[in-house]
Amino acid sequence: MQRSPQRIVYSEIDVKSWTERRPSCGSVRPSHCPSCASASRPVGAPLVVVGHGLRARSIEGPAAPGEAPVVTDVHGRRYVCRACGAVLVVVPQGVARGRRYSLSAIAFALGWWAYERLHAAAVRERSSTAKRIGAASATRWASLARWTRCAGSLFGCEVPALGTVRERAARVAAFVASHAPVSTGPVPTLAFFGAAFCRPR
Q1: What is the pLDDT confidence band of residue 137, given thresholds at 50, 70 and 90?
Q2: pTM of this prediction?
Q3: Which pairs from 42-48 meet CB under 8 Å and 24+ separation?
Q4: CB 159 within 8 A of CB 168
Q5: Mean pLDDT confidence for 69-80
Q6: Sign of CA pseudo-dihedral 15, 109, 164, 172
Q7: C-alpha to C-alpha distance for 28 and 24, rounded to whole angstroms
Q8: Would you list the domain boundaries of the chain?
Q9: Of 73, 71, 154, residue with least CA distance to 110
Q10: Quick one: DSSP state of residue 66?
Q11: Minimal CA–CA distance to 61: which of 108, 3, 113, 8?
């Protein structure tokens, strides 16, 4: 049996506001289906994109710059398109598909590691709730290089394969920081806030 396609739709609500007061089904219903472009609420006709329950997941990282990392439970709103059968999951800004860490936490970590040249172990301590780390990972964090390679799917940032991984990560952090709603502050902090305004490719 072929599974219906699933699409992630980003709300304009941030993670903190979403978790403090989960939005109603109607308030975050997409205006149209991103798979077939059918209108959700056609005039004079039944709803096309209808509520389909909740989808729970956990994301990790600091809720704000300077705060300790935490695990946050997020319940995305699920919808199904009656026209094409696509399943849509509406999530708050900053939630990355298939990622354990929030987009803000990822951008923040890349900024500290690459732009501010902080040691990988110190970046992990600021980003992760994990207390037990293997000996081989005590001085490195493979996620930093992996996030740099996936910058396009995470932030819509295509970085040329020039220079070291850390140099490329610095360019990613600067790109994300340029999307922050404020223009002054350290690059890691600006990247933290800019991550929610980037769109993956």
Answers
A1: low
A2: 0.83
A3: 46/82, 47/82, 48/81, 48/82, 48/83
A4: yes
A5: 94
A6: positive
A7: 7
A8: 6-93, 103-197
A9: 154
A10: T
A11: 108
